[in-house]
Every structure is written in C-alpha cells, then in structure tokens.
Design a protein that fits this description.
6-stranded parallel sheet; 9 helices; 220 residues; 5-stranded antiparallel sheet; Rossmann fold; single chain; 28% strand; Alpha-Beta Plaits
Amino acid sequence: MKKQFMVLGLGRFGSSLTHTLIKNGHEVLAVDKSETLVQEISTVATHAVQADCTDKSVLIELGASNFSHAIVAIGEDLQASILTTLLLKELNVPKVTAKAKNDNHGSVLSKIGADQIVYPERDMATRLGNQLSSDNIIDSIELSSDYNLVEIKAPVSMNQKTLLELNIRAEYGCTVIAIKTGNNLNISPMAEDTVRAGDKLLLIGSNDDIRNLESDYEPK
C-alpha cells in the first residue's frame, strides 16, 4: 500500500531514507533548509521543499498534519531536531520517528513525544562490530538490548544435517526462521529440512545464546 511520508533533514540519513521510500513505491515530501540538498533530492522525492522546519507556520503551510508519518532526520543541530519533533507532535502528526545522535538526545526526543527513536550511527556500529567479531555472521539486527536477529553462514560442520539433528533451539535457545540456499528461501523450515555448508541461516536469539552457538561452530 502506498504511503505518504514527510522527511525533514536531508543529510546522508535523510537522503538515503528518501531514496529507499521512493524505491519502495511510497510518496515523500523532503524538506531541508539547505537549497543545495533540496536540489539534489528534487529529482528523487515526490516533492522537495527548502524550508525552516523549526517554524510552526511553515510546517502548517506544508500540510504536516496531513501526513501519517514524519521522520525527523536532522543530525547535528540538536536544538532544531528537538524543536521540529515537538512541533510535529503539537500538530498531531500520528507517528513521528526521530533520529538521535546519542542516548541523551534520544531521551529528550522520547520525553517530548517522539513515537520512535533511531540511532543510525550506533546501530550501524553494532552491526559492523558483530560482523567483524565472527567469521560466520553476515548481518545482525538488534531487536532489543538482549536479542538479535542474525544471518549466519552455515559452516562445514553443519553440512548435510537436518535441523532436528542440529537441535539448535534446544541446545542454544536460538530459533531458525529461514534457510537460504542460493536464491531459494525456505521460510519457517521444518525439523527434517537439511542444511548445507554455505547456506544462510536467519535466526533469532539472545546475545549470549548466539555467542555460544558461534563459539561451538567456529572453525577449529
């Protein structure tokens, strides 16, 4: 279903987000006070406007309250980020997602009503750190402070074994939710499904459980 988003702040994060939303078939009103950034995104976004997001009258004129979701992607100017978030909530935008630079920034955004806080730099650093720490982890997404969704490459020691034989859930507390073999994706695999070396396993587990699994299956 096509959705309408308002992206405020067109730095690297806001620009990339706009590209992705448009690519996924949605409409985006992209806003920034920089004429250069607005011109750069104008060929991509549904509409691109140079404006001061911290001016309530400007947000009203842009029809902010008509959008079901606004994303405050302002990075370095914390005051502008906070004020813009506050104004959007005052205008009764149903959902406001705000980019935070750090935990203190995120705490303030949460207190003034932001519905979702994202930490692009921290999250990317966490994902990269997880990847670099393991020879098998391909990607990692933090679901909470304790649980991750990870994509791992099945090592040789798993080759031609069924999920029942590997017994990953009982042994490690991790749940395999998909197996990718080449271009074929097996979602919700059965216990009798076989894993081959090099397959990609998508699994959910606590950080400790994933580390234990990794430790047991890392190359000796």
